[in-house]
Amino acid sequence: MAPAQGRWAPALWRSCNGLMAAFFALAAVVQVNDPDAELWMVVYTIPAVLTLLVGLNPLVTGNFIWKSVSAIHTFFCTVWAVGLAYYLLLHTQQNILHEEEGRELFGLVIITAWISLCYSSSRNPAGGRIQLAIATVIALFPFISWTYIYINKEMRSSWPTHCKTVI
């Protein structure tokens, strides 16, 4: 992957990590009234901290502890996502975003994609143009999705009460 040119690349990479750290932290906070809140708060807090560290110092991705924690967390999120996808394949009755397991699956996919992108950045912390383009899209996706879902009251109408009362 060719390195991105210019001074903007490291700033963009740090900004994307800052956005994702904020997203993961917010995702952890909104779990407060979920029936299995403790589990999901941990699932989102780990990538929030890992991503914040990358935003503060992109070279941290070369650190053994950072690599180990991110690899283990990514592994468990991937296995869990595969299990949820299989469950949804068998049991989905409506739009996947109307199913709580579908929203959980998307969260796990976002975690896995982002941490994998950070993990691969250890060779080139500012990334190449393609990596930065992917990072920008992934970093904006959760916020655009949340805005859409927040505006679309019909989508939220079938959600359980604990999902409607957080934000």
Task: Describe this protein with a few key phrases.
single chain, 167 residues, mainly alpha
Description:
With 167 residues, this protein is mainly α. 73% of the residues lie in helices and 0% in strands. It has 7 helices and no strands. Helix 2 crosses helix 3 and helix 3 packs antiparallel against helix 4. The longest helix has 28 residues. It is globular.
Layout: helices, strands, pairs:
Layout: H1 8-29, H2 37-56, H3 64-91, H4 100-120, H5 129-151, H6 153-156, H7 161-164
Helix pairs in contact: 1-2, 1-5, 2-3, 2-4, 3-4, 4-5
Class inferred from helices and paired strands: mainly alpha
Can you summarize the main beta sheet? Answer: none
Overall mean pLDDT stands at 86
Number of helices: 7
Helix/strand order: HHHHHHH
Looking at the structure, what is the overall shape? globular
- Helix percentage range: over 70%
DSSP strand content = under 5%
Distance between the termini: 40 Å
The low-pLDDT segments are none
The strand count comes to 0
Radius of gyration: 17 Å
